[in-house]
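<purpose> Linking amino acid order to shape
<body> The protein record starts here
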Amino acid sequence: MRALLILIVVLGIGLVVGDRVAVVVAQNEIGRKVAAEYNLPQRPDVEIAGFPFLTQAVDGTYRDIDIRIGDWSGQNISVHDLDVALTDVSAPLTDLINNRTSDLVAATATATAVVPYDVVLGFAPEGVESISDSPEGLRATGTFPVAGISVPATVFVTVAPTEAGIEVTPVSVQAAAGGPTISLSLLRRSLTFVVPLQALPLGARLTAIEPGADGLHATAVAHNVRFDELP
C-alpha cells in the first residue's frame, strides 16, 4: 500500500510538472507571436488562466489569456501599462508548438492602456500649457485668445472615443481673476482637438476613456480576433 501511495504521488508530481511545462510553451509562443507582429523590443508576459492547463490544451479552448505588454508605441503615440485580456480562445496546442496561427481565434480581446498627459498635450492647440485631472474634472490651463488678446484661463474638458481617436472638448471655462469673459462657444471651435489613438493591438477599437491621475485610461475591444490576420 505504501509503495502504491508513493507511486500515485510521483505520478501526480509528474503530471503537474508536465502541465506547467506545457503552459510555459504555450505562453511563450503566444508572446513571441505578439512581439513579432508589433515589433516589440521584448516578448510580453503571457498568462493562461486555469488549472490544469493540459485539459484546456486537449480541448483546444482557453477561457482567459492575459497579455501584459507594458509600454507600447503606435500611431505616433506612446502608452503605458498596455494589457490585453483574451477570452474564449481557440488555440490547439499542436498549432502553438508548431508556430501555426491559422486556427488561433479569440472571441473577445479587451485592451487597456494609459495615455500620459504629456502625450495628450502634444496634440493640443497652441496656447495650452498643461493638462491634468482634478477633483473638479479634467482641465487644460494656458492662455487663450480673446478679441486678439491672450488671456490666461482654466478650461474644463471632457474626453470621448471617436472614429478618429480621443476627442477632447471644452465644457466650461474659468478666466483669471479680473480678466475678461471668455466665450465657451469660441473656445470649443478653437480648443476641441483629437488625440489620434484609434485602436490598440489586436485590432481593439476604443470604447471608453476615463481621466486618471497618471493620464487617460483607455479601453478598447475587438471581437473574433484571428492571430493570422493581426492588423
Remarks:
- DSSP finds five helices and twelve strands in the chain.
- Helices lie at 2-37, 53-59, 93-97, 117-121, 184-191.
- The longest helix spans residues 2-37.
